[in-house]
Design a protein that fits this description.
two-stranded antiparallel sheet; 4 strands; mainly alpha; two-stranded antiparallel ribbon
């Protein structure tokens, strides 16, 4: 009769001698790969933040310039009186926010003066019709144009103050 248990000539291996996990070399290689990937992703994140701030600056400048144009259009049509030497441009940015009285109603051109995303302040460079278009001195007669006071350089190599 045969025995139900068959004996083998090989010794039985125990898994206790070999523990599962990472070796030191594997761990170092993994950390090195992660460090390389993180160092490549960090500049991309910085460019994304800068690109978003530039987009916000362009939008804010467009919004204020559009408000100045609407103010001038309304003044040219005789909706309200302006100073004679202003050429129907607003005297300051605050006038665009406060508005002008037109037929008993307040006509506002801008909800608020936006914060310059490059400087973090709601202060903008102003130009009047009498000022030099490339200069940074403001004569104070009226507001013809606005620009950023930031001296930084954009991703495309231009200065923010020239936008």
């Amino acid at each position: 009769m045969r025995s139900a248990f068959v004996s083998t000539s090989r010794p039985i291996r125990s898994d206790r001698g070999r523990e599962r996990g990472l070796t030191l070399v594997e761990l170092i290689v993994t950390v090195a790969i992660l460090a390389i990937l993180a160092s490549a992703a960090l500049p991309l994140a910085r460019f994304k933040v800068k690109r978003e701030r530039e987009r916000e600056l362009r939008r804010d400048l467009w919004e204020m310039r559009d408000a100045i144009d609407h103010y001038k259009d309304a003044a040219d049509k005789g909706a309200f009186q302006t100073k004679l030497d202003s050429q129907n441009y607003p005297p300051d940015l605050e006038t665009l926010v406060k508005g002008e009285d037109v037929a008993g109603k307040k006509l506002k051109f801008l909800r608020r003066i936006p914060v310059d995303p490059m400087t973090g302040q709601a202060e903008w460079g102003l130009r009047s019709m009498q000022d030099d278009p490339t200069g940074d001195s403001y004569g104070g007669q009226s507001v013809f144009d606005v620009y950023s006071k930031s001296q930084g350089t954009a991703l495309d190599g231009t200065r923010y103050s020239t936008w």
